[in-house]
Task: structure prediction
Amino acid sequence: MRLLASLVLAAGALTAQDSWQIVWSDEFTGAANSAPDPAKWNYDLGAGGWGNQELETYTNSTDNASLDGNGNLIVHVLKTAAGGYTSARLKTQDRFTIAYGKIEARIKIPFGQGIWPAFWMLGSDISKVSWPAAGEIDVMENIGREPSTVHGTVHGPGYSGGNPITAAYALPGGAKFSDAFHTFAIVWKPNSVEFFVDSISYQKVTPAALPAGAPWVYNKPFFMLLNVAVGGAWPGNPD
Result:
């Protein structure tokens, strides 16, 4: 997974998309093979399936997450000599959180059976209330056997795991997301989260979309995550 040029969060007059003001960004500038900025990113580490029967072990090694010297962050999956996999899961937890605004990243994703890249967010109170009570916003998820399709999703109490609020966006003409960079974004306001690919809106979630009695858990700060998982219940194992 490559993030080119910038990951930008903007806040502003939430009734007008042309009035955004940048409040946080990462252009991923730095020397080739260097680590991403530790003032902006830290890592989830280890194995254990991550609740999804995933196969990878997450590391903070520059073998798995590094800059390329040209304004890209590379998240790199490696197969180990023992037949396992290493990857990286970066996050802004304890570095930066935001409530509301436009959150976007320009990403070129990999493809292939069993590969699961994602750009997503978790409620900053997750250590206190756990998941799914903290809430989850998946700005972009892809499973490698669907190279032309990405998914935008929210998870919360009563609508999580296999029963989320979700929609898919497919590139026209069978084009693959792995062929080029695309911009994945949400516009997040009090009581709405709208999903975009290359400025095209394909889903807007409001409290009215939730199951009866389910709480809306998105009116609070969230932090961001970037990762490439391997295997798991949804994508299946690599071939």
